[in-house]
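To assess whether the prediction recovers the assembly geometry, we first specified each molecular entity separately, as shown.
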Amino acid sequence: MKLLIATGNAHKLREIRQIFTMPGLEILGMEAFPDAPEVIEDGETFEANAVKKAVTLASVTGLWALADDSGLVVDVLDGAPGVYSARYAGEPVDYAANNSKLLAELADKPDRTARFRCAIALASPDGDVRVVDGSCKGRIGENLKGCEGFGYDPLFIPDGYDQTFAEMPAEEKNAISHRGRALARAESEWADLLG
Ligand code: IMP
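The predicted structure of the complete assembly is given in tokenized form:
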């Protein structure tokens, strides 16, 4: 089965390819569809944005489409940056600026607990859609560490670890990450559709 991954984010696509290795599944990136419309992520939840991306791209391409919407939820910041994680420090998306802003916001805050969240939506070409999610709890470090991964990885230390996601090999991050957990759920709940 062909499955389009409805994301322009090369880092997410790479992780999804690493994690989602069901036999018979042919994963396609958006490069095959250069004229596909950009989907505006204006939902108030990760689920709403994931559904919008998957349904739009499945309808435009006629393929089954899978979309990830994800972000970092920081408790003491009332859930920010949340669904605005990609553009926390403004346009265009700038991971370094986002991390600097997060460190500045937390400078005088002792509570640094946070979690990554990920919603994964799967849409059929005729508009059927289903969603699973995954999360990973942790805390925000005092400074940037490591150069693997992307986004907030150099600041995020998952519970039970002393290293940030950016200090871990990809397989270790994928085994416990919000995206890894959501995709594991997708693989078991949607085995009949994806097999
Ligand atoms: P989206 O394209 O709206 O889903 O944006 C997701 C944003 O959340 C990314 O640009 C990152 O800033 C952040 N994010 C999501 N997942 C991860 C991850 O696994 N590591 C680090 N940052 C992430």
